[in-house]
Amino acid sequence: TIDSIISRFDLTSAQGKLAAIDRILEFLSTLSSRIVQEEYIKVVAEKLSVEEERLMRELIERNRRARGRISQGRVEQKKQFFPYDRLEREALRLIIHDVGEARKILLNLEEDVFQSGPNKDIFRLLKDGLKGSEEADVSQLLSAIEREELRRLFSSLLFEEREYENEKTCQEVFYMLKELDLKRQISILPRKMEKLSQQGDQEEADRLFEEILRLEGQRRALQEERINQDHLMEGQ
């Protein structure tokens, strides 16, 4: 993993070396085991010819900041869940009430971006029921729902008052859900990497690190695509 990071930077320049150190420390700060962190620090100090004590001081500071973010995250956890659920339901509401291109945008989502089980079930129902007929009236799908919980959810989305609907709104919800899903996928990998490293499976840990880089690349590409789409819509 460390070698994978180092190989991405030009160590012949001071700027490249500092960037490599910064990226390595960022990675190490995600590991919860102090022992694993210290072992990595020894390796990094030797490979980059940097004082071990200096690296450890910087890592301790990053760990302190990370703990602060975790504490704040726990305070905000409930606040974060409900907006996520509301965003999923907003996507469902837009699919139900919009037609044509606006609806098609959100039907291009993958069902795995929905974290709520009922929301995912409703999305699957809509995607299957509207396949090849994006202009169809979705109210006919209600009769196909057997579970009472889903019938109530679908009915509430179907009959609630609409405040707005347009292609731009659908586009915004689409990108927000996609980015949240990528962030979720990225967030669970560092702990898995740490566990694999502790078990001595460095090859698999390196593979997960490459997966993190791939997902981060997808997230950056998604952000750029979102900006480009915003510019296109502003020009229309």
UniProtKB/TrEMBL annotation:
UniProt GO MF annotations: nucleotidyltransferase activity
Domain DNA primase DnaB-helicase binding: 2-53
GO biological process: DNA replication, synthesis of primer
GO terms for cellular component: cytoplasm
Gene3D superfamilies, sorted: DNAb Helicase, Chain A
The protein's name: DNA primase DnaB-helicase binding domain-containing protein
Organism: Candidatus Hakubella thermalkaliphila
